[in-house]
Amino acid sequence: MFKWLDPYAKPQTLFNLLGRWQRVLMPLGWLLLAIGTVWGLGFTPPDYQQGDSYRIIHIHVPAAIWSMGAYSSMAIAAFIALVWQIKVAQWAIGAMAPIGAVFTAIALWTGAAWGEPMWGTWWVWDARLTSELILLFLYLGVIALQNAFSEQATGDKAAAVLALVGVVNLPIIHYSVEWWNTLHQGATITKFAKPSIDPSMLWPLLICIVALGVLFGALVCQRLRTSILRHEQHRPWVRQWAQEQA
Amino acid sequence: MLFSAHQLSCIRSDRVLFEQLDFAIDAGQIWQIAGRNGAGKSSLLRILAGLAEPIEGELRYKNQPLTQVQDEFATNLCFIGHLSGVQPQLTALENLAFWRACYALKPADDWALLAQLGLAGLEDIPCQNLSAGQHRRVSLARLWLTAAQLWILDEPFTALDVSAIAQLRQRFIEHCQHGGAIILTTHQALDLPEIPVQQLTLEYRW
Amino acid sequence: MGSVYLQTLRRDFRLMTRQKSDWLNPLMFFLIVLTLFPLGIGAKPNLLREIAPGIIWIAALLSVLLGSERLFRQDYKDGVLEQLVAARAPLFPYVLAKISASWCASGLPLLLMSPLMALLLGLDSKAYWAMVGTLIIGTPLLSLLSALGAALTLSAEKGGILLALVILPLYIPLLIFASAAVEQAGFGLGYSAQLAVLGAMLCVALAGVPFAVQHALKLNVG
Lengths: 246, 206, 222
What we know:
heterotrimer
């Protein structure tokens, strides 16, 4: 495993590799997102129950999925950082956390905006909503911890530990909230029966999900590259690269 | 060679403190690290003591990479930084007892040791009520407890009076004559004619 | 290993007797928070009985959190931790002793004060015994998690608030199950399932948290 990871652990190699990935992923992500949203918002039939308001699903669901995907990738990076002591993996946590937090915030906000016409309220203490809110707190905790130290290296390592602790806790939190929800809410909110989705609506949704995933990858590449440059600014290769750019 | 550093570099808060630093210390030697305030003396000592990691470079203990012999190195090291390591609400005796447990040292007559260091009658006063110099003496009592061969000391003479400085010098000489080695920073002249004192000067870099 | 544990424990108890405010203040904070709720919400007995479990547990986790900030801070500032790390002294028994001592200073007094809480909030005997049960299992878990938070934020500049931000989300499962157990008992229902879940969480935390704390201490000193 370490042998396999080792070449990518070298910041300069990784920097160049990420640059190549980013050049492909970034335009691809935006293109897919454009296709998915235009198709989803403009050319799918309205829902028989919810009318046009369901169209927000094309933003809401991908954001919710990738808010959790981002946390898992962050935890994997944290695991690599702690077990093999690879610095770029620590930096990757810092690159991913704000993106994940923004995805979570988008999922919450669009969820609230969708809930208002559907359930008649901006917020209900539904299990999934509550878990998502706690996920946002976990993200904010990681970001705050990472930036709280005068010595950046300490912040990076501490954030790795917290991200890993968080991912162990995430399922516990999720199931406890779900259980709490059935205990407290029960009959007060009857969630509308989930209609099986029509293929004409499914395709744009799938495209949007893939698009946001690709975009997440591209943004991580970009942020990690910046992070590598900042951490390695004293190395000759960075100076050389900067001169080439200029 | 007891302990050596190869091509060490250190960067703190975006400032390069030192680059490609080499030095080696053998039994019976004293190395004095000199340099202006902020030149990176304390950072160097923390790296040597294994508390911080250098950006680049390698440390070797008895010609083996430090990463492989860390435990052996740590048991043979006594590090006293600019933090005293003395818990202020505990008495000198209680502090000593705690260190003995943590470093797995055998119990011995701590009263005699404290008396020898000029702390007779102050053994059971909380250390926060001691003067700065007395506080420092409690901290330095470690040097009389330890059996470690390599000492790394950050400004050991700070706040000490003339008699305590003389006593500490005597302890240094004793230690080196018994095959010990010391790396220390101090702004004073060391003035130890019996021992070869090597100087390493860190330039202040912008 | 054992001697480090005992010495650290003895040392911490000594410190507790010398600095009583360290553990007394969080307890007073707990009592004051407990009195704020009836004042803010209204002191109708039925209402109080209904929300008592939640109030007790929220107050408990805030007061433990408040006390835990100082857990490693003094040893960090004085360089005791630096010495332990430099000497590669066994940190594990040190961490265990610290957590045990912090439980004795924060969790145990809560347990002792529980009759008082029952009195103030009008809990009946069934709910009271459920609360004692959750406190016995829950407070060690609180101490473990807050030790982790304290260790992670040790060298951070804005320790206090950051500690709360980092650790409070991790308290949520504990809060849910502990207050649910007391609530169930209040309705005359069984609550052994909730206690079992709390016990399982405590076991997981006991197995993992001390190692994480040890790691966090090392990286904050380095």
